[in-house]
Predict the structure.
Amino acid sequence: MTEYNTYIFDLDGTLLDTLDDLMASVNYALRQYGMPEHSREDIRRFVGNGVKLLMVRAVPDGEKNPQFEECFNAFRDHYMLHSLDTTRPYKGILGLLAELKRRGKRTAVVSNKFCAATQELCRHFFPDTIEVAIGEHESEGIRKKPAPDTVIEALRQLGVDKSNAVYVGDSDVDLQTARNSGLPCISVLWGFRDKEFLIENGATTFVDAPSEILAY
């Protein structure tokens, strides 16, 4: 069994349960423009490809809606103010990250959430355990997941190569990202996608609790 020295984590649905804050900001923005709101399960299905696509899925007719950009901006502004209202690390995550640090492992987060929010959340919840946090910043030429760019950038900032690195995530996007990055993937089962869906998308390695990641 390979001993991993570098752990690249997804954020939403892997380290943090962000669903209620995302739902609140989506529905706040929709209310401002008289659009129908969505349930928690709707938001669970919509997430995974970045906040722009989250809102494309949430807004009637998506980007074809003449009010889409205003609604998206309302979501973004609200979320930046309220991303910490109910968001919390999943049970066992803080202990996992502390143990990885104790063992001398390198850690990073890569997310399709916009970069400012990704870095704010990591600074708030994981100030001593997550070394690098990469969010969406395609304007700088770093494509969002499932392109490998965020992983490549995280490895560059850590100063390590991908040998003995592993990707940890909860979704099909994470599986594709790991595959495109040439990394093995550990799929977590406490996140936004269920095991059957993950298997259909090629997942082969699963954990039911954060502590199980230490066995790999």
